[in-house]
Design a protein that fits this description.
Helix 1 packs across helix 4. The protein has 8 helices and 9 strands. It has a 7-stranded mixed β-sheet. The protein has a two-stranded antiparallel ribbon with strand order 1-2. With 275 residues, the protein is an alpha/beta fold.
Length: 275
Amino acid sequence: MAEPQRVDTTLVQDNQPIEKRKQEEIEWANYRYALKDKDNAEYKKFKANEKYYSISRSSHKYIKEQLANLTTGKDVVELACGKQALVFWCADRIKSGLGLDISDVAVAEAQAEAKLIPGAEKVRFEVRDCEKTGLPDSTFDVMMESGALHHMTLDVLYKEAARILKPGGSFLCVEAIRHNPIIHTYRKLTPHLRTPWEVPHILARKDVMMGLKYFEKVTVKNFHLMTIFAVPFRNTKFFTPLLSVLEKMDAVLLNIPGFKWLGWQAVFVLSNPRK
């Protein structure tokens, strides 16, 4: 596999270039966004894991419910928004929105996508380091992110999140979880899909609960244990009924302590930042 091309994307913060790890994250993201030819072998390699998102119906439904409850009439910010920003899911109901990403290409892609989304004219996008946003204290009612925390230094990020949220604010997170040995082995066997930082920093239960250092409350719902077995059938007539059965099994199993953290994803909300 070809290595990402080095491009001049150095982000300067506080008059200092960001550290090498973050520069590598920018280059990696920009390289992936540059792959647009769907017939290209390299494009297909990078999209190989997209089939697993075919089973995301239950988690997406829950996320949309949470966004509806949290964001109506609120000032919101999304960290590491990328092109497929969560803020687009609630753009028609928010008061204002800000999407942040360390990748300049991601921000450009999000700006272009926003032109196609009803309500997204209320959302602006900026290139910023999400660990050091430089934004004022107590600015937003709601923060959100999806699949970004394992790219960051978690303790630093949680502290920054609590700082820029208003008292009583909420932080909605959608993250992969590391406790299922089969899923985590797959991650290790597909390094071309991830940055070097990513796999060792997939969140564990203790990482989710670390949020209580900076927030007063955390609520967690886990997803996608049995539903993963529907993936091979995604292009058949059996997929929808099979997925429905497996979702019901997950609803039981993922509420049992010994199984709860074996799901592929968790959606958690950190509430009431400690000021």
